[in-house]
Amino acid sequence: MIGKEQKLKLNRERNVRYRAKLTPAQKQAKYLKDRVRLLEQRKQRISQNDVLLTEDKRICSRCFKKKSLSEFSTKGICKSKYTDMCDICRIKIYKSEAYTPIFMTETWWRKKAYCANSCFMQRIKRIKIGNITNTFKKVSGPDVLQLYTKQSAKCVYCDKDLSDGMFQIDHITPLSKQGTHSIENLQLLCIECNRLKHTTTDTEFRSLLKDYYRRLSQVIEHEDKEPHG
Ligand SMILES: [Zn+2]
Ligand SMILES: [Zn+2]
Question: Alpha-carbon distance 91 to 87, whole Å?
Answer without folding.
Answer: 6
